[in-house]
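Dear colleague,

As promised, here are the two records you asked about, laid out in our usual form so they can be pasted straight into your sheet.

NAME FIELD: protein one
SEQUENCE, THEN STRUCTURE:
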Amino acid sequence: MPDWVQDAVWWHVYPLGFVGAEREAPADGAVTHRLDRLTAWLDYAVELGANGLALGPVFASSTHGYDTVDHSRIDPRLGDDADFDALVAAAHDRGLRVLLDGVFNHVGREHPAFRAVLEQGPAAPTADWFRLRWPHGRDAEPEYDAFEGHGQLVALDHSAPAVADWVTEVMTAWLDRGADGWRLDAAYAVPTSFWATVLSRVRARHPDAYLVGEVIHGDYTRVVRESGMDAVTQYELWKAVWSSLNDGNLHELAHALGRHDGFCEVFAPLTFVGNHDVTRIASRLTDVRHLPHALAVLFTVGGTPSVYAGDEQAFTGVKEDRAGGDDAVRPPFPDGPDGLAPFGWPTYRLHEQLIGLRRRHRWLHRARTTPLHRDNRQLSYAASADGERLVVALNLADEPARLPAPGAGAVLAGAGTVRRDTVELAAHGWAILEG
């Protein structure tokens, strides 16, 4: 993993939604320059404490960005190459690294490589890019593998050398242009052997690039070891955080923290409590008083934390399994931070405080956790690495609670009273303490 990732805190943006782009790309390809709207928010991200801008899809697509039709061109609903270059330059001027979202498991049906197949049949030079079948004859449209049953998303054949060559060139070209790394969309659906081939080539040209895969379930450690990725997304911890807080079952969280430590022995996971694919954390929690508890965990465990734009303002939004079901979690933002509602700023300040705490304790990127007390509604643990230590205490109950906190000192965030190796928390209270 590149050295700079130790200090990375990502502010994650879904650009098409953020700038209020149309649902479908214009038929005439007309360019609307909107990326500068995102530039207007970069100081806000820096003030939050982020030093990385993780972008969702920015390449030309038919609809939502994950049906890419041209990986070499900026989506015209966002702008053009000059707009992208200006955004990267503005981000770098502020010390923000830029992470791109690469969709390399599949392409949209309008991608030229697949259009060639529809027009030329098996003789198309790109026919071997896809897993095709011709049950109705070679003059008819072929059957093809689609990503998770979505016919508009045509799965690539990752055993084809031409696909590996093409993905390598796309990744390196945008790193050449100034990007600092890639999130690999649906990485779990792609053979690890493919990633091992491609990523080794990419690293040969860009050894300082950060390469993280979207892996929802499965053997995270095996994927990282076999693929050559720096990290994968930590969905296990995401799920355990909100469900343990909702169920009043902090044993689940303690178990997940133990598994998280196991992953940290091999790699530093990309951690989060929200992203563009899931219900907002402020909506997912049944008791909004527990939002600080979720954030306390996010910013005190090992890994590389990411904050989904809007979560730091307590945005709400429920993802639904239907057409347009992502819209609520991918809304347009105002022209600038001055257009935000006043009620979200306390949550912003809390993020600011916790990210600042993490910056003052850089070793948290490598932290491991040790349970000090586990109960359904109370949990305390020590986060430690490199001879340093913090204590985290959480209370979900309707009454105050005293938790074991051996070695705890001054309260750094939250609120509590420390007495004789214990910390007293208010009802639904939390604290992070010197260790």
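NAME FIELD: protein two
SEQUENCE, THEN STRUCTURE:
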Amino acid sequence: MAPSIAQCAVGAALAWIVAIELLGHPSPFFAPISVLVCVGVGLGQRLRRVTELVVGVSLGVGIGDLLVSWIGSGAWQLALVVALAMSVAVLLNSGALFVAQAGSSAVLVAVLVPGDGAGGLDRMADALTGGVIGIAAVALLPASPFTIAAKHLSGVLDALSTVLEQAAEAIEKQDADLAAEALEQARTTQAAVEEFEAALETSKEITLISPLHWHRRARLARYETAAVPVDLALRNARVLSRRTLSALGEAAPPPAALAEVMREVSEAALLLQLELSAGREPTLARQALLAVAARERPAGLGFSAHVIIAQLRSLVVDLLQATGMDHEAATAALTPLEEPQGESRPA
């Protein structure tokens, strides 16, 4: 939050000074407003939002100036100006920011400054000035893209680890209530994935526009590599939790050995989190997952327990891919399900 406040404060002041001193505009209120919109409205789409802001302001100002000069100012004139500006914006672009800027700019022209002498081109220039300075503020006073990505990936991997730990405890204690709690926990994890995806877009944007982080893009690439696989891993964890609950209601409940495997995968997920946060290649996490992939499958499993094994295998593949392995190599690391008759079946 502190970097964003600094970006808004410094950027707004600079935009006001530039618009007055360099452009010669006496009241360039659109310049600091543009900075605040650019920096403060959401993350990960600033370049697009600057474009929407400038075009939206220009559209609203243009329609407002044209109509006010014809019909004057008043309540019904305001309603007409806003309706026309927003209707045209909706036809041109469905983006909420674009439509809102067109409407709000029309309001300002029709009500607040109907006779200030500033033309639509001047206001467009103010908006563009503020947008450019907002981007510059993000580039020169950036938040750490790696801190942002690491924080939100940690939320995803913590959620995955928690689900696996709860399912493992339910199996060890043969407790269906604990399994139900694990399932409920698993069903809440998608929000963490979506937050991580948004944070990753923000981090990528910062490394794109900030010279301070151009030389460290390779570090962020590890988070990009992990993004899809950890999402798939959480989806598999949800299925695993559901099957754990089902398995505890069968005549042959899952053996405690399954809980041990779940805990090993959980610990590997936390290792992945620690290594990525430290900016290291996740070799320890990969080794831990390869060890799990080579484990033999317990014998005498019921139907749901077989499904749990399948989900654990998929989870291991997902997390191996998150460490940087390709899908073929990750799948090949699993011990095969087929085996000669009479041998124990691997996990």
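A couple of things worth noting about protein two: Residues 217-247 form the longest helix (31 residues). The chain has a mean pLDDT of 80.

Best,
R.
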